[in-house]
Amino acid sequence: MSKIHVTTTVNGDEVEFLADPRETLLDCLRDKLGMTGSKEGCGTGDCGACSVTLDGTLVCSCLVLGVEADGKQVGTIEGVAEGGVLHPLQKKFIEHAALQCGFCTPGILVAAKALLEQNPNPTETEVRYWLAGNLCRCTGYDKIVRAVMDAAADLRGEAA
Amino acid sequence: MSVAKPLPHDAAPLHVTGQARYVDDIPLPVGALHLAFGLSTIARGRILSMDLEPVRSAPGVVCVMTSEDLPFANDVSPSAHDEPLLSDGSVHYVGQPLFLVAATSHMAARKAVRLAVVDYAEETPILTIEEALAADSRFEEGPRVYGRGDVPAALARAPRTVSGRFEIGGQEHFYLESQAAIALPQEGGDVIVGSSTQHPTEIQHKVAEALGVPMHSVRVETRRMGGGFGGKESQGNALAVACALVARATGRAASMRYDRDDDMVITGKRHDFRIDYAAGFDDDGRLLAVDVTHYTRCGWGMDLSLPVADRAMLHADNAYWIPEIRITSHRLKTNMQSATAFRGFGGPQGMIGMERIMDHVAHDLGLDPVELRRLNYYPSAQAVSEDASGGRISAKMKALTPYGQVVEDFDLHEMTEALLASSDYAGRKAAVAAWNAANPVIKKGIAFAPVKFGISFTLTHLNQAGALVHVYQDGSIHLNHGGTEMGQGLFQKVAQVAASRFGVGMEAVKITATDTAKVPNTSATAASSGSDLNGMAVKAACDTIRERMAAYLAQVYQADVTDVHFADGHVTVGTERMSFAEAAGKAYAGRISLSATGFYKTPKVDWDRIKGDGRPFFYFAYGASVTEVAIDTLTGENRILRADILHDAGASLNPALDIGQIEGAYVQGAGWLTTEELVWDDKGRLRTHAPSTYKIPACSDRPDVFNVALWDGENREDTIYRSKAVGEPPFMLGMSAYLALSDAVAACGAGYPALNAPATAEEIWRAIGGMGDEL
């Protein structure tokens, strides 16, 4: 099948690639652009390890076709730290030991960032239910929720 | 000192930026091939014909292999040589690899395998416990029996008895990173393998057998796994061997990863158990005799089922002294995935069986389940150490396990007292009772569970570890050991040990990927033993270098060697003080070897698994939890409202990592006993092979209130900085979630709930239906 030329913006940088029309955005990011921060945990949109934003909307990149990214803005884990400076969420995840094997961490950070951008002051319950689509097998989630709450306070300029 | 500090995971900055590389993230050379297995669609039978022409002619396919194409050993089993990489013509379960495809892309390989036309002579599969018993389909010649006393007679004499049957489901590991491997062909027929494995040496061994080369021709490297939980102890062998075979056959790099559905269909899971029990006790609740029978479905291959079933037997007593006990274990061979290691390794199944008995006895007597448990606990460490009586019912005698090991370190009396107080167990139990009296639909339950878990591999020779440490002339330190990193923080803990030995900061220590070319003959990172074994081996290597440096510097500065100290990034020699880097530079210039290996073997362990007698464990780790739940009696829907945990990690090497392990383990343990249900149909097909149908706990399932604390105590045995293993023991803290659900169901009637595990909403609803019409 002939490939389609895709022009898109990933973390602010314009990129181009040729995609089979059936290829997922996740595979395009990982295999064509070498951006392996987004992970495949299930390939069916249940685990959230492949979370990215598409024009600001949180999506599972395993459920989006690469060609659908044409002309859009894609945000991945590689763009969360800006200019080598960690985002407060990243700092708080390290500080709170909110990760173990780290495989779900990129997706959770992308999802949490999307939450805080639309709701800077979430309740703990809102955090828990927002992240219910991001599975973690190691941590039991407690430290993840604490880290997100702490980062939200930090971003609001409040001492935690 | 770096030990005991709550430092973050060494790779955390890489994890949060997406830079941490897992096997499937490693860039491959141009021309690399991607592999997939063609899988059986029947549970038992023989292959009559296999037409692979459509597979060979599919787009992108470069190479197709069947068992006939394998040049040497067709075996990926960890023990019994009974698991062929590719079917030898016989089929033993749905999902068994029959043939192997290598193609130019992952997708091309996956699409091609579906084009095979396979014709089978189907046989009736053995799936259930009853079918396996009827066919006498089992591993080992018959059931294994451990215990002491004349149990039937003791049960007949006992003033009171209860008996019952309890079914316990298995569990899918659901490591977020599915199984993966790569192989890079080297000159002279050598191969380098990258594997997401807990056991690099076994990968090396199986690849060498498959290629017909000595182990020195195969180098296996493992930087990290995206979770393991026991599921990567033996289940990665097939992928690594397949990659190595294709790399050898084609001269091209080979990569393989299972998609989630394939991973769940192909690989083994936690063993499911049925436990039949009878317990005799007096009117005060003192246990007199227990008879338990474990029936475990091992699946089609032996894998690690024997030690798993052994460990279940070794935890059938949990925390209680039982004067006369018989533990019988049937290891049944069934046409399903070959069940394998999973955090706890049989211990959880044995232990929950005993906890179920305790609950049943407490219910029968109308006693508080916590009081009953405390009454039957093993004696405290202090009572055992002070006991010199030698009497018939002495503390020492009551500290004797059914397998002949004396429990010398029992901390649960004090831990129970502390947890009951901190969790306000008594007050909340009264509040639960008041709630249940007032509310007909939503019922609450609360339960306490203790954990006593034996630490050491029961296969004694596995209790060894090696390490390799280099100090460079600039004072930086290169660290390698035989353990693997799967998220548990082992590398960080061991690096903290190394930094402490040299008195330097963590930034001086570089932790490198586990590599069979650096440390040979490693044991699997399993049995919670990672930091116990490798921490000690690294300490030994560091101390060797330190002693050489101290001896040299003492000679140079004409000081006594005992006056050389390593602390705060400096070395002091009498009145001289220099940075560690300067000291390393001086030692290098003085032609002192700054590289050393270290080795450790666990002392005291000695075990005869056939007799069921000896000391299988160096020590025990303890924990206790209290969980409160609510159930909707109309739907079975349920929630964990609060969990309180007190866990014994000895003198913790890193409290942040240890608490993380405990929280994750509790949630995973509670998941096993509540939402995680594996369903096979009557054709032996696994129907729950994706997260859409197999439900592990999500963020929204986390207990509303979750209090986790470490017990403040050090290991009585001489372990690395007196710490205790923490990987598996807290998994069983999740038992209190199941027991609390059973308590809530018990509030629906007068009987003892017939609640099996996992206690899903459906199972709870069904159990409530069995409680009678009292609602």
The name CATH uses for the topology of the largest domain in chain A is: Ubiquitin-like (UB roll)
Structural class of chain A: alpha+beta
Total beta strands of chain A: 5
Number of helices of chain B: 21
Outline the biggest β-sheet of chain B: 8 strands, mixed
What percent of the residues of chain B sit in helical stretches (DSSP H or I)?
Answer: 25-40%
| Mean model confidence by pLDDT of chain B | 97
Largest sheet features of chain A: 5 strands, mixed
In whole angstroms, the N-to-C terminal distance of chain A is 54 Å
| Multimeric state | heterodimer
Morphology call of chain B:
globular
Keywords:
A: 160 residues, alpha+beta, Ubiquitin-like (UB roll), 2 domains, B: 775 residues, eight-stranded mixed β-sheet, five-stranded mixed β-sheet, 29 strands
What does this structure look like?
- The complex is a heterodimer of chains A (about 160) and B (about 775).
- By secondary structure, chain A is of the alpha+beta class.
- Chain A has helices at about 25-30, 90-95, 105-120, 125-130, 140-155; strands spanning about 5-10, 15-20, 50-55, 55-60, 75.
- In chain A, strands 2-1-5-3-4 form a 5-stranded mixed beta sheet, with helices on both faces.
- In chain A, a hairpin with a 2-residue loop joins strand 1 and strand 2 (about 15-20).
- With about 775 residues, chain B is an alpha+beta fold.
- Chain B has 21 helices and 29 strands.
- In chain B, helix 16 packs parallel to helix 17 (about 530-555).
- At the A-B interface, helix 2, helix 3, helix 4 and helix 5 of A face helix 1 and helix 19 of B.
List the topology elements.
The complex is a heterodimer of chains A (160) and B (775).
Chain A: E1 4-10, E2 13-19, H1 25-32, E3 51-54, E4 57-60, E5 73-75, H2 88-95, H3 105-118, H4 124-130, H5 142-155
Parallel strand pairs in A: 1-5
Antiparallel strand pairs in A: 1-2, 3-4, 3-5
Chain B: H1 12-17, E1 33-39, E2 45-51, H2 53-56, E3 61-65, E4 90-91, E5 97-103, H3 106-113, E6 117-122, H4 129-134, E7 144-148, H5 151-157, E8 160-168, E9 180-185, E10 191-195, H6 200-211, E11 218-222, H7 237-250, E12 254-257, H8 260-266, E13 272-281, E14 287-299, H9 305-314, E15 324-333, H10 347-365, H11 369-376, H12 381-386, H13 395-398, H14 412-422, H15 425-438, E16 442-455, E17 464-471, E18 477-481, H16 490-502, E19 509-511, E20 514-515, H17 530-556, E21 564-567, E22 570-573, E23 576-579, H18 580-589, E24 595-601, E25 606-608, E26 613-615, E27 619-632, E28 638-647, H19 655-673, E29 705-710, H20 735-746, H21 761-769
Helix pairs in contact in B: 6-7, 9-10, 16-17, 19-20
